[in-house]
Amino acid sequence: MNVTLHGFSHTWPDDVDILLVGPGGQSVLLMSDAGGGGETNVVNNITLTFDQSSVNLLSDEGPLQTGVYLPTDYPGASTPDAVPPAPPGPYVSTLDIFNGTDPNGIWSLYVQDDTPGDSGIINGGWSLEITTGSPPAITSSPTAIVTAGTPFTHTFTATGDPAPTLSYANANLPPEITLLGDTLFGTPITAGNYTIDVIASNKVAPDAMQTFTLTVVNAPGMPQPTASPTPNFPPPPASPHAEDVNLTDDDTVRTFVPEQWLDSIHVRVLYQNGQPAQWRGNDLYHAGNIGVQGVLDLGVWQAIDIFTTSGLNYFDGGVVFCLRGEGTLIWLAASRAPRIAEVISSHSIAAYPGYTCATIFEPGLLVLVQANPSL
Predict the structure, then answer these.
(1) CA distance 8 to 318
(2) What is the DSSP letter of 241?
(3) Using one digit for the tens of pLDDT, what is the confidence trace for 121-149?
(4) Distance (Å, rounded) from C-alpha 368 to C-alpha 270?
(5) CA distance 305 to 108
(6) Are 245 and 256 in contact (CB under 8 A)?
(7) Of 251, 272, 254, which is closest to residue 349 (Cα–Cα)?
(8) Closest Cα to residue 166, out of 134, 137, 206, 204?
(9) Which of 153, 197, 155, 156 is nearest to 176 (CA)?
(10) In terms of DSSP H, where are the helices of the chain?
(11) Nearest to 193 by CA among 145, 134, 257
């Protein structure tokens, strides 16, 4: 809709406030404190049309000119509610408030000159142009059935005046199906029921809504998918306290842990005698654990993960860890991301002949390789 003032004249347009009130009591401030004042801003017999589709505002300081404008409200000292019977504010400054409402009834235009000393007139009166429309309706089918492995296409359509736009929500579609614009397409492969909500709107109430259901069925003779049984895996390998590894038959690692940390520091064996430890068929130790493929290329003989469960992140004074075998020790501190491999100094201990030992000060990975690396 639009509102037109025919033959508007005023000696100080900034004084003029104009309020449009619809049959349902909707109040729109078409013009307030616009156009400036003074001799250079006097207007005579111009035509002002207010239309929400315009991109122009009335000039704040003037002069006003014949044209099509958005409702324009600049800050000022007073508003039309100062003069009854205009309804009290607050008011909006958009004609969209009338979209989707019943236009039948009484329309009122309230015009106020909020400052004495100047005068004006709307010589030709005012007029409304109301374009009625029809609410949207979704015309495409709410269901579709497709055989798994068969290409599928479905376009959503809707009618209404003006032409509605479509939007979508709560999509639960096969991963092989794509929504591009208003069209679904793709080749689904898994049987089941899938849905997506479709909303059509054109600013004429009410919006139309539809839940579209796509049913994917298997081809004749194709077995229906069945749920895989829950794997019955044994419990994962124990991660003993570091001191406890000294008491096991596994002679991969030996350590000396101060008494105050006996319950805090743990060890997990990841590589043993040249072979990776496994859990659920996967290597516990691989390039992804350390981020440095070059370490594996050196020939890993033993590897352990030293970690804590108590928030301990620094071993004051150090903890000695020994790995069985001779070679070079490589350290990857857990505090560095990504982890960086570095060669560390090693020593031997008489109590554990045949072991290579190092003093460690924080959690991380300790790796014994048989080559002599230059990292």
Answers:
(1) 91
(2) B
(3) 999 999 999 988 888 999 999 999 999 88
(4) 11
(5) 81
(6) no
(7) 254
(8) 137
(9) 153
(10) 287-290, 293-297
(11) 145
Q: What domains can you pick out in the chain, each with its CATH number?
A: 2-129 (no CATH), 134-217 (2.60.40.10), 253-369 (no CATH)
**CA distances to 94, 137, 180, 208, 361 from 202, in Å:** 17, 10, 21, 10, 68
Token couple for 258: 């101060």
**More confident call, 232 vs 133:** 133
What count of other Cβ atoms lies within 10 Å of the Cβ of residue 191?
16
Q: Maximum CA pair distance of the chain?
A: 113
Full DSSP string of 7-38? EEEES-GGGEEEEEE-TT--EEEEEES-S--S
Give dist(CA 95, CA 107) in Å, integer.
Answer: 13
Long-range contacts for 311-314 (Cβ within 8 Å, ≥24 apart)? 312/261, 312/264, 312/265, 312/363, 313/362, 313/363, 314/361, 314/362
Q: Quick one: which of 51, 96, 122, 67 has its CA closest to 59?
A: 67
**Residue 291: is its pLDDT beyond 60?**
no
For residues 208 and 181, the answer to whether their CB atoms sit within 8 Å is no
Whether this model's pTM surpasses 0.70: no
314-373 pLDDT, tens per residue?
888 889 999 999 889 988 888 876 567 788 989 888 888 889 999 999 998 899 987 665
Contact partners, residue 283, CB within 8 Å, separation at least 6: 276, 277
- Token readout for 79 is 């508003």
Q: Report the amino acid identity of residue 284.
A: L
Nearest alpha-carbon partner for 120 in 59, 23, 44, 6: 44
Task: State the Cα torsion 345-350-353-359 to the nearest 10°.
Answer: -30
Give which of 171, 173, 174 is closest to 149, Cα–Cα.
Answer: 174
228 has pLDDT over 50: no
Instruction: For residue 285, count CB atoms less than 10 angstroms from its CB and return exposed for 0-12, middle for 13-18, buried for 19 or more.
Output: buried
Locate 283 and state its tokens.
Answer: 């290597």
Contact 71, 34 (CB under 8 A): no
Backbone angles phi, psi at 116, to 5 degrees: -70, 160
